[in-house]
């Protein structure tokens, strides 16, 4: 055989050998696995996930690949997928205790404490001397509220391995939560001793010093961390946060501008300035900053998402939708993009679609706190306040530092008059954002409503001190003066607020109320017109002007103001409702009905518009259409007290089912327990059911509520009370009530029958 022939034969054999190897599934899966490991070690987690998945496709029972895929999903913060892979790993490799530890930690994160307990119990039996096991047990005890037990377990872990810095760090954080401040400080320092170049511990110690107002030591710590790792923008961000806490806002801003220059290719660095503006509510600066940086880094997905949030906040929905659609086109299951989509759906009035979108997100990622928060907003818009608060509480359970959820809870507390809850939420806002004035202003409001004026003033002064150019503090100072009937001081404070924010509807409302409290309606109207001249595009200002003109019975002026308000903002439901009321007051019921029906096209989920339509149909004696309108309102918001009350009254008037009417009236009473008219409706149903004593008691309460609320004397309440007294055999008291009806309103709908009742009582 010639040399060339022998070489050809050898090459053929080698090629065949390699060809055989390439078809060997064990070789192929190993190649994918090793490729995944290289990507994982290089922090390229999406690529690693693809390679591990390819390995598993070849061998679904490849335990090591399932475990590594789980670790990759954890890095990608895809907990649900990580849980599935760890569960599969444990099925395939029951003695893979690292997988069991990871599984226990995910179960704790998901608050599935029973299954987490099963895993940790087994781990303690099999691996009693593994520090990681005791760390997992500590996490479970902490999640269950057993802080001393959590500390004890982490100390056991440290005893097993005294030189593990991460365990000392865990202990320090637990001691901090347990208010063992000196012990926590010692352990922070111990972490640094064990790992002098660990910047995370340096930063945590600096943050600890900052929380104790030891600002000089905090700055020293942050600067030391900066020197240890000049390529890491996190210490610089911490130093900027310290400057903000000290009131050195300009220094903080300059530092972050430096970060943008120094870390022009590091997302964690060039995003900082925009995040600073966003966190401080400076949308006028945040929007152009994000626009500029996004133009430079369009490939940065997180930056893109941040920018979408800014665009939504500033109501630039077309731009936001375009960017969000780009994300969803690439990944239709991107949770963040779906949440942004739902926010825009809510704004557009598509609450049902938004709810469906969010429930899909939560089904796939139950720990997504932002989705729970926005779902709460959707429920609020649909009138289901109980479920809204439930979602906000869940969002805060998952992520206590979620500011939007804290603010939502504060708003709910204000709406319900729950001042202790408002104080609690405001305190959390202050803790999370100490350099923002709104937390202090909200807490001051809770104090004002409980007449704790000294405490309120402290918070107001703090709000003004940390943000002297903000309107928040001055608006609340005006509220404090108004509550104490110091109207001159209140007016000055509201004017200071308006000088800082010419668009502050709250400040203008407060200023106008001070003038009205002193019986100066013309000054209130002049104030509204003056502010409109400065901010002509503010729908709320025209709404306030229309309200003041309406109170003076200037119906034409009020109508023009409300029309302008609704033209500027077709979703301003308050102005829309008042526009209908003005038109009805002018005797233009058909026009009012047309206005309300047109408004519904833009606001299909606004139950109050159906209530107005119901009232207008009642005025036309079209009982069926009125009933349909109230039913539509209750379909949108089953707890709407006005719709419930009006439908109950209508059913009594038209001979409807009294039991259904009573249920509706009780719903209305629950929603507005201090409303005299609603108490009157329920009492009249008691009368119809011959429960005269119950009717009398409730009608007497309605009169007291009327006096308490300084409401006009309602002849219907007196008429109903007279009828109840007559039926219960108390003619003298009945006569008093019928005479009162005729004195208040001799031409009211019940006046003729009141005269007949008086005539019958005199003849008997």
Overall description:
This protein is an all-alpha fold. The model has no long low-confidence stretch (mean pLDDT 90). It contains 45 helices and no strands. Helix 43 runs antiparallel to helix 44 (731-744). It starts with a helix and ends with a helix. It is elongated and about 135 Å long.
Shape: elongated
Structural class determined from secondary elements: mainly alpha
- In DSSP terms (H or I, runs of 4 or more residues), the helix count works out at 45
Runs with pLDDT <50, length 5+?
none
Gyration radius, in Å: 34 Å
Strand content: under 5%
Task: Give the strand tally.
Answer: 0
How far apart are the first and last residues' alpha carbons, in Å?
A: 142 Å
Largest sheet: none
Instruction: Indicate the mean pLDDT.
Output: 90
Which percent bin holds the helix content? Answer: over 70%
């Amino acid at each position: 055989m010639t040399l060339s022939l022998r070489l050809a034969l050898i090459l053929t054999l080698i090629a065949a050998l390699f060809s055989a190897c390439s078809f060997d599934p064990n070789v192929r899966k190993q190649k994918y696995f090793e490729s995944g490991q290289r990507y994982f070690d290089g922090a390229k987690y999406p690529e690693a996930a693809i390679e591990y998945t390819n390995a598993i496709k070849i061998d679904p029972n490849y335990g090591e690949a399932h475990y590594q895929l789980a670790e990759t999903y954890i890095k990608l913060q895809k907990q649900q997928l990580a849980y599935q892979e760890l569960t599969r790993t444990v099925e395939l490799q029951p003695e893979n205790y690292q997988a069991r530890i990871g599984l226990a930690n995910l179960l704790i994160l998901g608050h599935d404490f029973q299954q987490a307990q099963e895993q940790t119990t087994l781990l303690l039996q099999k691996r009693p001397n593994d520090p990681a096991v005791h760390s997992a047990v500590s996490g479970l005890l902490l999640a269950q509220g057993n802080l001393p037990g959590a500390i004890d377990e982490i100390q056991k872990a440290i005893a097993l391995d005294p030189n593990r810095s991460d365990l000392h760090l865990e202990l320090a954080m637990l001691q901090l939560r347990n208010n063992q401040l000196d012990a926590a400080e010692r352990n922070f320092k111990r972490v640094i001793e064990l790992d002098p170049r660990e910047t995370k511990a340096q930063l945590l110690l600096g943050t600890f010093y900052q929380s104790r107002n030891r600002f000089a030591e905090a700055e020293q710590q942050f600067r030391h961390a900066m020197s240890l790792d000049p390529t890491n923008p996190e210490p610089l961000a911490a130093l900027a946060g310290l400057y903000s806490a000290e009131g050195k806002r300009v220094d903080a801003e300059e530092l972050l501008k430096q970060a943008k220059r120094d870390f022009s290719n590091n997302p964690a660095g060039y995003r900082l300035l925009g995040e600073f503006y966003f966190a401080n509510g400076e949308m006028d600066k945040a929007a152009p900053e994000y626009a500029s940086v996004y133009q430079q880094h369009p490939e940065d997905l997180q930056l893109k998402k941040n920018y979408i949030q800014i665009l939504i906040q500033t109501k630039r929905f077309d731009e936001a939708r375009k960017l969000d659609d780009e994300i969803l086109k690439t990944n239709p299951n991107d949770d963040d993009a779906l949440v942004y989509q739902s926010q825009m759906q809510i704004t557009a009035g598509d609450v049902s679609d938004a709810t469906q979108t969010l429930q899909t997100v939560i089904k796939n990622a139950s720990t997504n706190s932002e989705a729970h928060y926005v779902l709460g907003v959707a429920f609020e818009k649909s009138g289901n306040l109980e479920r809204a608060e439930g979602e906000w509480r869940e969002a805060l359970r998952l992520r206590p530092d979620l500011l939007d959820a804290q603010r939502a809870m504060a708003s709910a507390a204000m709406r319900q008059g729950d001042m202790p809850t408002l104080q609690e939420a405001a305190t959390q806002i202050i803790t999370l954002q100490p350099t923002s004035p709104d937390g202090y202003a909200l807490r001051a409001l809770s104090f004002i409503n409980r007449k704790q004026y000294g405490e309120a003033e402290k918070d107001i002064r703090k709000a003004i001190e940390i943000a002297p150019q903000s309107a928040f503090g001055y608006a609340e100072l005006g509220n404090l003066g108004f509550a104490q009937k110091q109207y001159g001081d209140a007016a000055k404070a509201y004017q200071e607020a308006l000088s800082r924010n010419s668009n502050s509807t709250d400040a203008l409302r407060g200023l106008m109320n001070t003038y009205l409290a002193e019986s100066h309606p013309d000054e209130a109207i002049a104030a509204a017109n003056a502010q409109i001249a400065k901010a002509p595009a503010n729908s709320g200002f025209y709404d306030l002007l229309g309200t003041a003109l309406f109170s003076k019975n200037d119906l034409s002026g009020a109508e023009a103001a409300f029309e302008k308000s609704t033209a500027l903002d077709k979703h301003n439901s308050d102005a829309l409702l008042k526009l209908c009321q003005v038109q009805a007051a002018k005797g233009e019921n058909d026009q009012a009905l047309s206005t309300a029906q047109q408004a519904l096209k833009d606001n299909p989920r606004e139950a109050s518009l159906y209530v107005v339509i119901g009232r207008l149909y009642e005025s036309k004696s079209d009982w069926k259409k009125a009933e349909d309108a109230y039913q539509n309102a209750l379909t949108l918001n089953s707890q709407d007290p006005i719709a419930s009350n009006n439908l109950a009254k209508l059913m009594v008037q038209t001979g409807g089912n009294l039991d259904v009417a009573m249920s509706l009236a009780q719903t209305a009473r629950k929603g507005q327990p201090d409303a005299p008219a609603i108490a009157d409706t329920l009492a009249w149903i008691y009368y119809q059911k011959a429960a005269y004593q119950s009717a009398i008691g409730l009608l007497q309460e309605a009169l007291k509520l009327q006096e308490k609320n300084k409401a006009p004397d309602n002849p219907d309440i007196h008429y109903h009370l007279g009828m109840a007294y007559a039926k219960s055999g108390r003619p003298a008291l009945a006569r008093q009530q019928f005479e009162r009806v005729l004195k208040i309103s001799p031409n009211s709908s019940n006046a003729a029958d009141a005269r007949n009742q008086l005539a019958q009582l005199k003849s008997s």
